[in-house]
Design a protein that fits this description.
Distance between the termini: 78 Å
Radius of gyration: 23 Å
Number of strands: 11
Largest sheet: 5 strands, mixed
Structural class: alpha/beta
Strand order of the largest sheet: 2-1-3-10-4
Number of helices: 13
């Protein structure tokens, strides 16, 4: 009779099982849920869908994504926290809520740090972007896959065109839930009130708020032209929208699959950035066609008005980081 419990037989079975499980793990199939604040045609949607397309191609169909649009999985802060806890797979989100977790991310709330897209890209693609991504990994348990963007933010309001900072006096302006942004808009002369994103459209519609600020694609995507008369190209803040994944989930993949995920994100990155800039130009014209008065003020007085905000928050963010960002060679 064959000894099925003999040591050589048990070792053979165990070795085969380990080999089988390793092969299965290396070839695992997975659909990754990805949260987006905006819709599929937005600058965010274009980047995430390209990432999914490339991931599916590189993995020969084993790894796919399931996008969830318009904050279906929760507001940005909830999604970032959820990724950190491992209960949300992945998402694209602005850096706005991240300053609540890591002080250095308040850099992206500071006004007039970046002059143009080239300046921002050069900084984010440098070692400084890598250091910020590592901080997110260490302190938020989130893996940055690519520094995608929302783009430059601009003011809209229902009171008047902005030619100079004094035109903001008396205007009730909604900010993100960021003390830096409140200080910025108060320095420019507005009455600044932080408010959750989900409440903004109704507040503008009802006249509780007069004013808000966002990238042009977002202004268009959420139909702010229906409740705001004036679009002012203030370009006061550059807003990254990193594509991120739960670090726990990322670490659960084999090294080969981790490399595929990062490669797919890097292929999608320039596509997303280019689409973001194209949409910005297109929406400037379309928002004018929809009846908004578009004003492009001289930005020098605005930059001057917010210098005290940068001085105040420099020590919190890290003065070396702020100086590096402002003066980055590009």
């Amino acid at each position: 009779m064959r000894q099925f419990n003999s040591l050589p037989f048990r070792l053979t079975v165990l070795t085969a099982a380990i080999g089988l499980s390793s092969a299965a793990f290396a070839q695992q199939e997975r659909t990754i849920d990805v949260s987006l604040p905006l819709g599929p045609d937005s600058q965010q949607g274009i980047g995430v869908l390209k990432f999914g397309e490339e991931l599916e191609r590189l993995s020969e169909g084993r790894l796919t994504i399931e996008p969830h649009y318009d904050n279906a999985l929760g507001a940005e802060r909830e999604v970032i926290e959820g990724m950190g806890l491992g209960i949300i797979d992945a998402g694209i989100a602005s850096t706005g809520p991240m300053g609540g977790f890591v002080d250095e991310f308040l850099l992206f709330d500071l006004p007039y740090i970046f002059e143009d897209h080239g300046h921002a890209y050069a900084f984010l693609d440098s070692e400084y972007g890598g250091q910020l991504a590592q901080l997110a990994e260490d302190q938020m348990n989130v893996k940055f896959l690519a520094w995608m963007e929302n783009g430059f933010r601009h003011n809209t309001n229902s009171v008047r065109a902005l030619e100079q900072p004094s035109d903001l006096e008396g205007i009730n302006h909604r900010t993100q839930e960021s003390r830096v942004q409140v200080d910025t808009w108060e320095a420019l002369g507005a009455n600044a009130t932080p408010m959750a994103w989900t409440e903004v459209y109704t507040a503008l519609q009802q006249g509780v708020m007069d004013s808000q600020e966002n990238p042009l694609a977002t202004i268009y995507d959420v139909n702010f032209y229906e409740v705001q008369d004036y679009l002012n190209i203030t370009q006061h803040v550059y807003s990254p929208a990193p594509l991120m994944m739960s670090l726990d989930l990322f670490n659960s993949f084999s090294e080969d699959d981790q490399a595929l995920i990062l490669e797919a994100a890097q292929i999608a990155l320039p596509v997303q950035r280019e689409a973001s800039q194209e949409l910005e130009q297109r929406y400037k014209g379309e928002l004018a066609d929809l009846g908004m008065t578009v004003t492009e003020p001289d930005l020098a007085p605005f930059r001057e008005a917010v210098r005290p905000v940068i001085a105040k928050w420099g020590p919190t963010v890290g003065e070396d980081l702020v100086d590096a960002a402002i003066n980055f060679e590009h």
